[in-house]
Write a structure and sequence with these properties.
10 helices, 19 strands, 2 domains, five-stranded antiparallel β-sheet, alpha+beta, about 25% helix, Rossmann fold
Amino acid sequence: MIPPHRRLVEDLAGRGVLPPDWYAAFAAVPRHLFLPDVIADADTGGHVDREVDEQGWLEAAYADAPVVTQVDDGDRRGPGEPTSSSPAPSAAAEAMRHLRAVPGMRVLEVGTGSGYGTALLSHLLGDDAVVSVEVDFELAERARVRLMSAGFTPLVVSGDGMQGWAGRAPYNRVVSAVAVRRVPYAWVAQTQPGGRILTPWGNAFHHGILADLVVGPHGTAHGRFVGHTGCVWARADRAPPHLWEACLRPDAGHAATRTRLSPGDLVGDRDASFAVGLQMPGVYRRVRRAEERGDPRFTVHLVDPATWSRASWHVDPGHGESGHEVRQYGPRRLFTELEDAHLRWVEAGRPAHTRFGLTVSSEHQLVWLDDESSVLASSG
């Protein structure tokens, strides 16, 4: 192992993040082999170019941070929205811990991306036990080359991972590297009874939650949310094009009100954000920081594309005592709904995300609190 690689693996192990049965895989798979030659620097907002600063690039490659590996689906004329990424190594280790895969199992991975996670699976389980599906042809081809260069030859399929890959079903495990709003029933159908499905899940408001499901004998998957995560959306579940152009246009037409709700009570509390998102599943949110670096002011934007209702929550720490400015537009009062949803969560005792669960069948998807008799959200 090169020094930055060794430091990362030892750090993960020392922090108790890396499961012992995955230590050898993380030690054997060099992350830098699966990353682009230019890595964005999250701290400075700049980039580290391998050709200009190889040592700095290696340090960035082995930082415990996610790395964007594609923007705008490869379109160089796009606005720069991340469309594929390599997760932070600690997040990858956490996912592998929840996956509970052991040699002898067959695994379907949805979203090959850079191929790093695919290589970890192949090292533990063997190439023949791993099928990885990637919707982007160029990403799939690039991952195949990187995997072969690293000594791995799993089956990498260019296709729609939402359909799974029936050619080698049934699987013992299905793991998704992209967030979905509905767990595709194809994943359940292609998992043998007793098998697990692990996927980031969410809605328009909040998608950083990890669902851990077990497939039962009658074709239904049940499980709980086991942790917060961050990744890109599956293509079919992304926000509508040009959504934010509408909500970021200059405010006009409605008088401002003020709220005592602190951003830390919602934006900074992932359990609160998750619970509010369950109650406002079609409402998108985005945080826009002040343009000057170091300026503590920011704005939380809310928008409902079904009615084009929108709201802006302007947060200025210097005016915290008088509350924060809110403006609302359209037939829905989105910020009022947000405050009400947050209050219901508080009155329910501020339940953590681990108390919520998910049931997936061929007919419906149910979200419940504590047990399946207490359904909070349902979709057919």
